[in-house]
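Translate sequence into structure tokens.
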Amino acid sequence: MSPLQAMVASYGLPRLLITGFLLVLFILTPFVDVDLVTQITNIINRFSWNAVLVLAMVPMIHSGCGLNFGLPLAIICGLLGSTLSIQFGFTGPLSFVAAVVIATPFAILLGGGYGLLLNRIKGGEMMIATYVGFSVMSFFCMMWLLLPYSAPTMVYGLSASGLRPTISLDGFYNQVLAGFLEIDFGEIAGKLGISLGALEKLVIPTGSLLVFVLLAFLMWAFLHTKTGTAMTAVGSNPTFARAAGINVDRTRMLSVIMSTWLGAIGILIYQQGFGFIQLYNAPNNLTMPTVAAILIGGASVNKASISNVIIGTILFQGIVTMTPTVMNSAIHMDMSEVIRIIVSQGMILYALTRKVKGSK
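Result follows.
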């Protein structure tokens, strides 16, 4: 095998093609009158919104539970935290803290039940997880209308009951992390009285990135502890792990609870960057992009790392951000949704065909 073939095999042909396509989009920007710095800012923002949701995939992959297609369950926990935080009257940054605190017990309780279910159907986790996601989302489509919410900023005006599909976070935790220690080169240039040219359009949401770095470091550190090593052993070879005295079911349940909690926190971070809470069918819209992102990063259904999360989120969000702008300017046709579907569904199909089954 030549060095080039070895590099392609190591990096992965699908990821190489996606990376190449993204680079072509970057190269084309000056030729189609697209502002490159603005696009980079958008990619950084979208990365900061989505990275924790992608990170939520790591624990379940390590424990052998596969890709978490039941992510809507975790998102529902975050939505309960955010809506109840507003219902209880919290405002400003305190509303974000309250949302995290409220979402945590929901994530532990529902994640524990989810883990019990997955322990009963070993080998078919991803299929059952998909049904769990759809079922929970459909159930809460009814509950958002029936639960006794009364905050005027959330309920329908005429009936004074039932939550709206989209709830603004103005006055609550909108941009609470993104605005923390934010680096705005345009503002810096104004204060210094100098010109930074196109760089003045670059804005870095430092707070959101720092939260991701903290959670990613904690995940990396956990995976290097005794419990984290046991979790990896369970995912690699559950028979060997059981023979070594590891409680396989308990370890798998812990991974599901961790994944559910990270998903709940991830949607809160997504909301503060986006500026809205989206209910009803919205949780399902994040499942495929999140799964695709970690697969694009090089993960498989039984192996994932923090670098897979970072690379995959950058590549996927880069494609989603750059494609509509560049394509619209170049050919005056919006193909962003088509390319997003091809990339996300194609990567999931590719990963599933590469599944390596360990002994059960």
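Note: The chain has 15 helices and four strands.
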